[in-house]
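To the wet lab folks,

You asked to see what we're planning to order before we commit. Fair enough. Below is the target structure as C-alpha cells, and below that is the sequence we designed to fit it. If anything looks off to you, flag it before the synthesis order goes out.
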C-alpha cells in the first residue's frame, strides 16, 4: 500500500553529553527473538544427526569397537555421548549458531564444513594420544555421515524458515530505513526482492528534511526529524538500517550506535554498493576508520580455468550419455512438424563475437518471417520478444520448451568453447546494439542456464534480467555456478516462466 503522507517532529533535547539517550530501561535482551527457538531446534537436530551417524557406524561397520576390547561401555559412551557433544561444542566454537549467519547465504554451511574438519582432526589426535586403535574407515564413515545429516537437517530447517517468512512474516526483522528518500527506496527495493531474507522495512526516517517526501508515494510511512528510538518503539522495529550518505555525517553514526547500546535494536549500514557480493568486499580499518575495499571481479585465473575445464568435460559426457534422448527428441520433431530438426541462429557471445547457437526447433519453419506480424503482441520489454501463447510454436515444441529440453543441443556450443554451462543467456545478434550496462554481459561466455533462468525466466522484465546477469558477471565463482546448476533442476521441474 503506497503512502503519500509523513510525520514531522522536532528532535527531543539531548543529554548534556551530546549523546541521545534511550528512554527505555537499559536491557540487553534483543527485540528480535526468532533466532532463539530456531537455534534450539538446530542444536537438537545437530545432536540427533551426530548420534544417528554413530549408530550407523556401529551397526554397519564390523569391529568398530576393536580399539576398546573389554571396554565396550566406554566405546558406546564416547560414540553416543562424547562425540555428539563434541560436535555441538565445535559447531558452536566455529560460529555455526551465530544468528548473523542463520537463514541466508552459504556462510552457515561453510562453518559446518569447517567444524567437520576440526572434528576429524580432534578424533584422530585423541586416538593417537590415547593409543586407541580406531579404524580409519570408522572415523571417516561416522564423520562424513554426521556432516551429511547435519547439512541436510540445516537445509531443511532453513527452507521451513523461508516458508514461514514468506507466508506469515514470522522469523523476520522489522527494519527502519534511515537516510535520504532515494537511498532509502533503493535499499527497500533490494531487501524486498527476497522475502526469504527476513528483512521487512516498516518505515523510512528521512535525514534531509520532510520536504523531500512531499507529494511522493512511498511503500511504507515516511517520518522526518523524529527521535529514532521513539520511532523504533512506535512501529515495533528491531533493526535500523543506515542508508548511504546518512552514515557520512561525522560522528553521527557513532553516536547512534552509542544510543542503541542495551536497547536490543540492531544497527546495520547499507553503503551505496549495490549488487556486489560479500566475498568481494573487505573491511580495512585504518586509525579507527573502517574502509570498504571492493575487489575486481575474478574473470581469469585458476578458478576460471577450472570453470572452462568443467564445461568441456560435462558437455562431452552429457552429449555421450544423452545421445538416445536427443535421438528420440529429434524423431518427435520430424513427426510433429516438417522441416529441420535443429534451429541455428546467430547469437552474440564472449567479447561480442558472433556464433551460431544449436537448439531443437520448436517453431514452424516460417517463424522468423511471421515475427514481424506479431510485434505488437509482444509481452516482453527491452531486447526480448516473448508470447505466452505464441502461434508459431507447434504442440510438441511447446512441451520441449516447458521442460527446457530444446536447450540440450547447446552442449555442442559448450564443447566448442562458444558457451558455458552457466552464464548470461546469449541474445540474437540482430536485436540491436549492446551498449552501456548491457555490454558488460559479454565479459563472460553465455550460458545454457544462469541466474536469470533460476530467478524467474521469461516472467522477469528486461531490466531485472539485465541486473541479474550483471550481478553474475561481477560476483562469479565456481561454487556459485554449482548452486545455479542445482537450482536449475528444480526450476525445470516446476516449469515456471518457461514459454
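Sequence we intend to order:
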Amino acid at each position: 500500500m503506497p503512502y503519500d503522507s509523513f510525520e514531522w517532529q522536532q528532535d527531543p533535547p539531548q543529554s548534556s553529553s551530546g549523546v541521545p539517550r534511550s528512554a527505555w530501561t537499559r536491557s540487553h535482551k534483543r527485540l528480535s527473538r526468532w533466532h532463539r527457538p530456531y537455534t534450539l531446534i538446530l542444536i537438537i537436530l545437530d545432536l540427533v544427526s551426530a548420534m544417528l551417524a554413530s549408530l550407523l557406524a556401529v551397526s554397519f561397520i564390523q569391529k568398530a569397537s576393536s580399539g576398546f576390547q573389554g571396554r565396550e561401555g566406554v566405546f558406546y559412551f564416547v560414540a553416543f555421548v562424547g562425540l555428539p557433544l563434541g560436535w555441538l561444542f565445535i559447531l558452536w566454537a566455529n560460529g555455526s549458531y551465530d544468528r548473523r549467519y542463520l537463514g541466508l547465504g552459504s556462510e552457515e554451511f561453510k562453518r559446518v564444513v569447517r567444524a567437520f574438519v576440526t572434528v576429524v582432526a580432534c578424533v584422530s589426535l585423541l586416538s593417537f594420544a590415547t593409543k586407541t586403535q580406531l579404524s580409519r574407515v570408522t572415523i571417516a564413515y561416522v564423520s562424513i555421515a554426521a556432516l551429511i545429516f547435519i547439512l541436510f537437517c540445516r537445509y531443511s530447517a532453513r527452507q521451513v524458515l523461508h516458508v514461514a517468512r514468506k507466508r506469515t512474516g514470522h522469523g523476520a526483522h522489522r527494519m527502519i530505513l534511515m537516510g535520504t528518500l532515494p537511498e532509502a527506496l533503493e535499499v527497500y527495493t533490494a531487501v524486498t526482492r527476497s522475502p526469504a531474507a527476513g528483512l521487512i522495512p516498516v518505515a523510512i526516517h528521512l535525514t534531509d528534511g520532510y520536504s523531500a517526501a512531499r507529494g511522493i508515494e512511498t511503500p511504507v510511512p515516511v517520518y522526518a526529524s523524529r527521535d529514532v528510538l521513539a520511532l523504533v518503539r512506535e512501529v515495533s522495529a528491531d533493526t535500523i538500517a543506515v542508508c548511504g550518505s546518512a552514515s557520512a555525517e561525522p560522528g553521527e553514526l557513532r553516536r547512534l550506535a552509542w544510543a542503541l547500546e542495551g536497547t536490543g535494536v540492531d544497527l546495520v549500514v547499507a553503503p551505496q554498493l549495490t549488487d556486489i557480493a560479500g566475498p568481494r568486499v573487505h573491511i580495512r580499518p585504518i586509525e579507527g576508520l573502517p574502509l570498504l575495499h571492493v575487489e575486481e571481479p575474478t574473470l581469469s585465473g585458476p578458478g576460471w580455468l577450472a570453470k572452462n575445464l568443467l564445461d568441456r568435460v560435462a558437455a562431452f559426457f552429457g552429449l555421450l550419455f544423452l545421445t538416445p534422448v536427443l535421438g528420440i527428441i529429434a524423431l518427435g520433431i520430424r513427426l510433429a512438424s516438417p522441416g529441420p530438426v535443429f534451429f541455428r541462429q546467430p547469437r552474440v557471445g564472449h567479447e561480442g563475437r558472433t556464433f551460431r547457437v544449436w537448439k531443437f526447433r520448436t517453431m514452424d519453419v516460417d517463424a522468423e518471417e511471421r515475427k514481424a506480424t506479431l510485434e505488437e503482441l509482444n509481452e516482453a520489454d527491452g531486447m526480448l520478444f516473448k508470447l505466452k501463447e505464441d502461434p508459431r510454436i507447434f504442440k510438441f515444441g511447446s512441451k520441449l520448451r516447458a521442460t527446457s529440453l530444446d536447450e540440450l543441443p547447446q552442449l555442442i556450443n559448450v564443447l566448442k568453447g562458444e558457451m558455458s554451462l552457466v552464464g548470461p543467456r546469449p541474445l540474437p545478434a540482430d536485436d540491436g546494439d549492446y551498449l552501456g550496462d548491457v555490454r558488460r554481459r559479454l565479459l563472460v561466455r553465455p550460458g545454457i542456464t544462469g541466474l536469470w533462468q533460476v530467478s524467474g525466466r521469461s516472467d522477469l522484465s528486461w531490466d531485472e534480467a539485465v541486473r541479474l546477469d550483471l550481478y553474475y558477471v561481477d560476483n562469479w565463482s565456481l561454487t556459485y555456478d554449482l548452486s545455479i546448476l542445482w537450482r536449475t533442476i528444480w526450476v525445470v521441474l516446476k516449469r515456471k516462466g518457461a514459454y
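Structural context that might help your review: Confidence is low (pLDDT under 50) at residues 8-28. Residues 331 and 341 are 8 Å apart (CA to CA).

Thanks,
Computational group
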